[in-house]
Amino acid sequence: MKQKKEDSGEAIASSMLELSKLKVPVIAIVIGEGSSGGALALGVGNKVFMLENAIYSILSPEGYASILWKDASRTKEAAEKMKLTAKDLYELKIIDKIIKEPKGDEEESFLKVAKSLKKEIKNTIEEMKDMSPEMIAEERYQKFRNMGEYKIL
Which pairing describes strands 47-51 and 33-35: parallel, antiparallel, or unpaired? Predict the structure, then answer.
């Protein structure tokens, strides 16, 4: 079992390394629940968009509560501490844009979200079209290096 975990960790790291080397724009979109080590690779994108009701973290709130407090029933508290909502992640500069999700008819809402995503993807490609491959990779690197916040105690 231990070998498999090491293999998946290595696969995640390799994916992140390869994504970071790409000379084309990388656009990642979180549309539901991105909560595993594999979700880390999404952060390597030049742009990361997230639906407003999606969550994005490296661990589920249940897993976090189980590890931290040995009590999976503290899921709500864990979710609040984890800062995994689109709003939290935007404030931390982990994601670049929150895509609004309209209320109402499911099919109509889906079409509106798809239209918003199409617009954002087109805008991003348009913004980056004159960048050299090296500039694209460097922008992605700098973005990744500058995300999040920390406090020196």
Answer: unpaired
Residue in the structure block whose two tokens are 């922008």 = 139
d(CA 65, CA 149): 22
CA-CA distance, 73 to 101, in Å (whole number)?
A: 29
- Secondary structure letter of residue 56 according to DSSP: E
Residue 48, both tokens: 């990361």
- d(C-alpha 102, C-alpha 94), whole Å: 23
* Beta carbons of 39 and 57 less than 8 angstroms apart: yes
Each residue's pLDDT, cut to its tens digit, for the chain (153 residues) gives 455 555 788 888 888 888 888 999 999 999 988 777 778 888 889 999 999 999 999 888 898 999 999 998 999 999 899 999 999 999 988 899 999 998 878 888 999 999 999 999 999 999 999 999 999 999 998 988 887 766 666
Domains of the chain: residue spans and CATH: 27-146 (3.90.226.10)
Neighbours of 17 (CB within 10 A): 11
Report field, pTM of the whole predicted structure over 0.85: no
Task: Tell me how many degrees the CA angle 78-30-66 measures, rounded to the nearest 5.
Answer: 20
Cβ atoms within 10 Å, residue 128: 16
